[in-house]
Design a protein that fits this description.
By secondary structure, the chain is an alpha+beta fold. 34% of the residues lie in helices and 16% in strands. It is built from 3 helices and 2 strands. The mean pLDDT is 85.
């Protein structure tokens, strides 16, 4: 784990230290997911690993195909 420190600006902006950006592959324009867990602020670069990790997490009880078929049956 890397312990580094940064300061928030008056606009709430923070600079991610270069060594952390390099380690995580963060470049200019990289989108960052921001979430709060308990009293922790978690920043995650949105990359292939992030997308694979959340894939299916928003899936409802039906697949999109099943939901669409149900809607078609109700329309008839």
């Amino acid at each position: 784990m890397i312990d580094t420190f940064t300061t928030a600006s008056s606009k709430g902006q923070v600079v991610i230290p270069a060594e952390v950006r390099e380690r995580l592959g963060i470049k200019a324009g990289t989108r960052i997911a921001v979430r709060v867990e308990k009293n922790y602020l978690i920043l995650e670069p949105i990359n292939e690993a992030y997308i694979r990790a959340i894939r299916g997490s928003l899936k409802g009880p039906d697949s999109l195909v099943e939901a669409r078929e149900r809607e078609h049956r109700l329309e008839k």
